[in-house]
Design goal:
By secondary structure, the protein is of the alpha+beta class. The chain has three domains: about 190 residues, 3-Layer(bba) Sandwich (FAD/NAD(P)-binding domain), CATH 3.50.50; about 250 residues, D-Amino Acid Oxidase, subunit A, domain 2 (D-Amino Acid Oxidase, Chain A, domain 2, 2-Layer Sandwich); about 120 residues, Helicase, Ruva Protein, domain 3, CATH 1.10.8.870. Helices cover about 40% and strands about 20% of the residues. It contains 19 helices and 19 strands. The strands form four sheets. Strands 1, 2, 8, 9, 10, 11, 18 and 19 form an eight-stranded mixed β-sheet that branches. Strand 10 and strand 11 form a beta hairpin. Helix 9 runs antiparallel to helix 10 and helix 15 packs across helix 18. The radius of gyration is 24 Å and the shape is globular. The two termini are about 45 Å apart. It holds the Pfam family DAO_C. Its EC number is 1.1.3.21. It comes from Ligilactobacillus ceti DSM 22408. It catalyses: sn-glycerol 3-phosphate + O2 = dihydroxyacetone phosphate + H2O2.
């Protein structure tokens, strides 16, 4: 079955008629990962998402699959170990999405700084060892003050000591979600966007066995029956459990908002992702990342109690980030009028999780125990006197104990910062964590789901190796990414697509590129659009469940964020093409035009300017 607006009604009909083994509520990265692993385990699986796939937190991250070197400042070695190992797995199962991008970490002489030149080298060496990249082309190194300024002359030289360079990965967060969703759908999963859970169903014993759902497109209410239901709705998790009066007390969340802003690279051109202390004495660190001719930076971290469905960038968010950037790059003089795009997201943090910086830096109050700290000092002094090795220093770091460090997993965790709970009536809730951990979180949930199905229904569910379960578009050798992307690029070039557009298509769609260019057999370039733009639009509509232009421009591609000026110039051509493909009537044309205009205006912060 195709995965499109045309087959959506068929998918919903099957959801109504089928008793599922598993129903997943929530179509962000966590739910997508659970659904794929469940389908691969031969479970009859459905997934409902009340918005578009990835419309919440999973399209609003820093867009990195990063290893969490900042967690080493609290000596959360376990967090870093988990993160870098999972990052390698994500690169293996979705090789067309995360891309290696060495990160520059400038070091300043500041009493509130996270690292000095000695500690950053120790941290990076430990980071590399945990990531298994020691001795490779991506191994870390330090550079001098002058070398930092040669790379980024706009950086302030005041109190600059030097810098470190270590491996990180840039990411396309929304693409990672949709590729998991598509793979699950291709394997037989019933995946439906814009279907909202509005109530829970129970059997005579009070055990959950389905949901009442609302199709927000047609406004039809219906029921979905399932042996097991899992709530993977992120920051909505508590609100979903509130629908279930028999669930019992669930995990409390502490949602925080993170904001990122986009400017043109002509205003600030950085050669590589850069990561530094905010310089504002608040313990926060700021990313500055080059991407597609733009530079974006963030993030903020503030407690959030507003509209969960529609977090917005506010003036104080802009002021904070501009202050930090203008302080570190004192000659650029950025103002709000330089901002070309933005996004705001909500992190579903676990309220009881004590790991401070893992939780966004909002509770950095723990102190390292005196004994373990003194031991570290002794080992470092011995290292400086050449009577101890670097390995000795790393071992001393790993033994540090902090009052807020997550050294071990709680029983309800499957990754650090996550929570996996089984309610009194059988509702499973998986929340917290971060995008890099999604595969591990899903695997932990599947272990519990298998146990529940065995205990309640006598079902023996086979275990799978999810570390090699590749997503849609990622079915190729992850050790040979560059050459494979060139191969896919040539397929598009041979079909008449210019080199640069062919390269963009190959990176966006990976092993699905052949399916994208297949549309050239039936379509010609739409008026005002290139061939590449036309076939990308067709593919997204017919094979990626695009229901409106914002789905396409914001979450199937990044055009609304990183190419808004080109999008504005071609907006009418795109809308005309979509109208023709999807047979919009006059009212739908008006609705979708307004929807796109509103999204563009909000991203460009017109309401603040």
């Amino acid at each position: 079955m195709d995965f499109s607006y045309q087959t959506r009604n068929q998918i919903i009909t099957k959801l109504k008629e089928t008793e599922l083994d598993l129903l997943v509520i929530g179509g962000g990265i966590t739910g997508a990962g659970v659904a794929l692993q469940a389908v691969a385990s031969d479970l009859q699986t459905g997934l409902i998402e009340m918005q578009d796939f990835a419309e919440g937190t999973s399209s609003r991250s820093t867009k990195l699959v990063h290893g969490g070197i900042r967690y080493l400042k609290n000596f959360d070695v376990g967090v870093v170990a988990d993160t870098v190992q999972e990052r390698a797995i994500v690169q293996k199962i979705a090789p067309h999405i995360p891309k290696p991008a060495p990160m520059l970490l400038p070091i300043y002489a500041d009493p509130t700084a996270t690292y000095d030149m000695f500690s950053v080298k120790i941290a990076m060496d430990l980071y590399d060892r945990l990531a298994g990249i020691t001795g490779t082309q991506y191994a870390n190194y330090t550079i001098t003050r002058d070398e930092v300024l040669q790379r980024e002359p706009e950086l302030t030289s005041e109190n600059l000591l030097g810098g470190g360079v270590y491996l990180d990965f840039v990411n396309n967060d929304a693409r990672l979600v949709i590729e998991n969703i598509k793979e699950a759908a291709e394997r037989g999963g019933l995946m439906a966007s814009r279907v909202k859970a509005i109530g829970m169903l129970h059997d005579e014993a009070g055990v959950i066995n389905g949901v009442r759902a609302l199709d927000t497109v047609t406004k039809e209410e219906f029921t979905i029956k399932a042996k097991v239901v899992i709530n993977t709705t992120g920051h909505w998790a508590e609100r979903v459990t509130e629908l279930d009066q028999l669930n019992g007390p669930g995990q409390s969340l502490r949602p925080t908002k993170g904001v990122h802003l986009i400017i043109d690279e002509s205003r600030l051109n950085v050669p590589q992702p850069t990561y530094f202390d905010s310089g504002l004495g608040d313990g926060r660190m700021i990313f500055v990342v080059p991407r597609e001719g733009k530079t974006y930076f963030g993030t903020t971290d503030t407690d959030y109690t507003g509209d969960y469905a529609h977090p917005k960038v506010e003036q104080n968010d802009v002021d904070y980030l501009l202050t930090a950037l203008n302080q570190r790059y004192p000659n650029i003089n950025l103002t709000i009028n330089d901002i070309e795009g933005s996004w705001a997201g909500i992190r579903p943090l676990i309220a009881s999780n004590g790991s401070s910086d893992y939780n966004g830096g909002t509770a950095n109050t723990g102190k390292v125990s005196p004994d373990s700290f003194n031991n570290l000092i002794d080992v470092v002094m011995a290292y400086q006197n050449q009577t101890a090795t670097r390995s000795d220093v790393e071992k001393a770091i790993s033994k540090l104990q902090s009052s807020n460090s997550e050294q071990t997993l709680n029983p309800s965790q499957v990754s650090r910062g996550s929570s996996l709970d089984l309610g009194q009536d059988g509702l499973i809730t998986l929340t917290g964590g971060k995008i890099t951990d999604y595969r591990k979180m899903a695997a932990g949930a599947l272990t519990l789901i298998r146990d529940v199905l065995q205990e309640r229904f006598g079902m023996a569910v086979a275990e799978i190796d999810s570390t090699s379960l590749q997503v849609s578009g990622g079915h190729f050798d992850p050790t040979n990414v560059d050459e494979t992307i060139k191969f896919y690029q040539k397929i598009a070039i041979d079909k008449g697509i210019p080199d640069h557009e062919a390269f963009e298509l190959a990176n966006l769609y990976g092993s699905n590129l052949g399916r994208v260019v297949y549309y050239l057999n039936d379509v010609q370039a739409a008026e005002g659009l290139t061939l590449a733009e036309t076939i990308s639009l067709h593919y997204a509509i017919f094979e990626e469940m695009v229901l409106n232009p914002v789905d396409f421009f914001l979450r199937r591609t990044n055009k609304l964020l990183f190419h808004s000026e080109q999008l504005i110039a071609k907006k009418e051509a795109y809308l005309a093409a979509m109208s023709q493909i999807m047979n919009w009537d006059d009212a739908q044309v008006v609705y979708n035009t307004n929807l796109l205009n509103e999204a563009l205006a909000e991203s460009r912060l017109d309401y603040l300017k």
